Amino acid sequence: MKTIRNASDLAINGAPPAFPEPIHVGRPNLGDRERLLAYTAEIYDRRWLTNNGPLVQELERRLADFLGVKHCVAMCNGTVALEIAIRALGLEGEVIIPSYTFIATAHALHWQAITPVFADIDPSTHNLDPDSVRRMITPRTTGIIGVHLWGRPAPIEPLQAIADEHGLALMFDAAHAFGCSHGGRKIGGFGRCEVFSFHATKVFNTFEGGAVTTDDDELAEALRLMRNFGFKGYDNVVYPGTNGKMPEINAALGLVNLESLPRFVNHNRRRYQDYAEALSPLGHLRLLQYRSDQQPNYQYVVVELDRSVAGLRDKIVAALQAENILARKYFWPGCHRMEPYRSLFPHAGLLLPVTEDIASRVIVLPTGNTLPPACPAVCAAVLKSSRDC
Ligand SMILES: *Cc1c(COP(=O)(O)O)cnc(C)c1O
């Protein structure tokens, strides 16, 4: 592998790339192949492919157990899980969410004619700022969706206090926070319910998939009905519903990957430490830290450039990509600057100064259980040299 000493060693300036193959943010973590094939044979023999099959039921039991929550309702993906959770909670009118999140958080509301109202974030955590949430409450507000961004818990207690004070439902988009904890309790049991994504790019995946977790029996029953067209037994529809069911093959990969989760997280933790060490001499950026009292899954390696070099962000990302390190600008430019929200709320950015600032300076670097061990050091060398390329 080449050594990057200065800008002339960079691929963006004509040198060969550091890595022969592209290294993606969110390359899937995969557990044991033979176990998946054994489950697949079982599915074939049973000919039970979907509709709450035995593997889905087993995965739900194991996930509920792992997360320390009473109910886990598996779904076909995280976005449908969000939509169903929003519906089951009876949200309407306006719901407050961060703009600094994946677009699905906003779309899950807009898709059912609910207005997402974007609140600003705390610059030190990238999570919702409770004071901003308070300022966004109107007579039409019915709920708050906190997002545990990067696997760092949202400000759960302050948001719960606001929700209680104003009679709002609080739920969480926990798509980034599988296996993370807050105050010694696993994410999954906070608010009225929490929503996970098991998309291929997440730390724990089922190809596509998701789940809603809750301790509320009635809510769990509503979620299960809505997931399956509202069917309660044969020929008896008691609820409006959609199709949010998880197929058996997805549950099979879930069971396999759940066994390997400790290995995935350990691996991510070590790569995160490598990044922390490699990046620490660089004065023009900061690696987002995790709090030691909040167990993270180290799924995201998030770098914030100093304001003095923010204008170089696109050039730095291009330099990394030229080395085949496919760094990303998550979640630039913020949901409020994407359609349809940009047209619906053209002035939303005026109330989101921190979101706009952070989104303009962030770079997300690759990690995961196939990351080449040299990647953190190469990233650091590129980040150092690309300042003056
Ligand atoms: C991935 C993700 C989703 C959507 O999940 P899918 O399973 O891809 O539908 C929602 N919210 C956040 C924050 C995400 O990162």
Can you give a write-up of this model?
The protein is α/β, with parallel strands linked by helices. It has 2 domains: 33-256, 3-Layer(aba) Sandwich (Aspartate Aminotransferase, domain 2), CATH 3.40.640.10; 261-388, Alpha-Beta Complex (Aspartate Aminotransferase, domain 1). It contains 12 helices and 14 strands. The chain has helices at 33-46, 54-67, 78-88, 104-110, 130-136, 156-166, 217-227, 248-279, 313-322, 341-344, 353-359, 375-385; strands spanning 23-24, 71-75, 94-98, 115-119, 141-147, 169-173, 181-182, 185-186, 193-197, 210-214, 285-287, 301-305, 325-326, 362-365. It has a 7-stranded mixed β-sheet with strand order 2-10-9-6-5-3-4, sandwiched between helices. A 3-stranded antiparallel β-sheet has the order 11-12-14, with helices on one face. The chain has a two-stranded parallel sheet with strand order 1-13. Helix 1 (33-46) runs antiparallel to helix 8 (248-279), helix 3 (78-88) crosses helix 7 (217-227) and helix 8 (248-279) crosses helix 12 (375-385). The model has no long low-confidence stretch (mean pLDDT 96). Bound molecules: pyridoxal-5'-phosphate (PLP).
Structural topology:
Layout: E1 23-24, H1 33-46, H2 54-67, E2 71-75, H3 78-88, E3 94-98, H4 104-110, E4 115-119, H5 130-136, E5 141-147, H6 156-166, E6 169-173, E7 181-182, E8 185-186, E9 193-197, E10 210-214, H7 217-227, H8 248-279, E11 285-287, E12 301-305, H9 313-322, E13 325-326, H10 341-344, H11 353-359, E14 362-365, H12 375-385
Parallel strand pairs: 1-13, 3-4, 3-5, 5-6, 6-9
Antiparallel strand pairs: 2-10, 7-8, 9-10, 11-12, 12-14
Helix pairs in contact: 1-8, 2-8, 3-4, 3-7, 8-12
